Amino acid sequence: MSEKNYTYIFSGKVFPERANVNYSKLNMAIKWKDYHIKGMVSILLSQITARFSCDKKIVDILTFRNIVSELIRFMVDTVGYTNGCGYDIEITSCIDSEDNITIFGVNIENDIENFSKQRPCGVPEIIQLANSEYGPYLRFSFSDLRESIKNPSQTGFFCFRAIESLRQYFVIKYSLRDHQSWEKFRNCLNIERDKIDYIKNFSDPVRHGNRIHITSKERLKVMADTWDIVDNYVEYGLQNLKQCNSE
Question: Where is the DUF8168 domain (predicted)?
Fold first, then answer.
């Protein structure tokens, strides 16, 4: 009796779609944990199709999606390198051989409503910080938060850089050196050092040109902790603005 194979078909897009990116079928093999995965990727008119098979059922589909996304991103970045263009990709869905369909969201937990309720305030309040002394650092931080969602394999790098952007406020404001500014940052925002160090552990290898494996569970913790830190900075800035306006 032949062994059962599990099939996973991912779909996605290359952006901007008007670029009309094409890449003929590329066969590839993935070694991940005790999985031995084989498959192919093709891009036609900027539409991505990736088909993989494995002799075992893959339980952590989100981490698998991240691995597939990283491979396809490298393919597309290679095309961009050769023709001097900048592309982005998005893997939007997966269907397996048991007809299970997974639609990947654009946010962290596929639960935008509940996630937004965890934030300390809404968009109008945060925009008040845009033209204040807190704004420039927050803009850099938000751009890195966006990239941390779009680039799963580099989540730690972008999350830590988002935090470093906020720390620069204290560097400039109080003319502090590296160690002093971190201490001031943690004290003013009431942040435990362990939380920052955990994120940094997933950033340092990438910052130095290396790579690090991150599971979907680890990635979720890194992002949740980072968002908590940014929340504290937003609250800190709004409280100080309110105090200044009342004087």
Answer: 8-103, 124-236
Does residue 95 sit in the same domain as residue 120? no
Would you say residue 91 lies in a domain? yes
- Whole-number Cα distances in Å, 65 to 3, 133, 194: 24, 39, 29
Tens-digit pLDDT profile for residues 41-100 = 999 999 999 999 999 999 999 999 999 998 999 999 999 988 889 999 999 999 999 999
Same domain (yes/no): 231, 126 = yes
Displacement of CA 53 from its chain's centroid (Å): 26
Chunked into runs of 10 residues, the chain (247 residues) has average pLDDT values of 82 93 91 92 96 94 92 92 91 95 77 69 87 93 91 92 97 94 97 97 89 88 93 95 81
The answer to whether the peptide bond before residue 136 is cis (omega within 30 degrees of 0) is no
Its pTM stands at: 0.80
State how far the alpha carbon of 127 is from the alpha carbons of 98, 131, 142, 241, in Å.
Answer: 46, 8, 12, 12
Q: How far apart are CA 174 and CA 115, in angstroms?
A: 33
The 3-state DSSP class for residue 149 equals: helix
What is the predicted pLDDT for the residue at 1? 42
Question: Burial of 129 by CB count in 10 Å (0-12 exposed, 13-18 middle, 19+ buried)?
Answer: buried
For 203-230, letters b (16+ CB in 10 Å) and e give beebeeeeebebeeebbeebbebbbebb
How many structural domains are present in the chain? 2
95 in the same domain as 129: no
In contact, 172 and 200? CB cutoff 8 Å = no
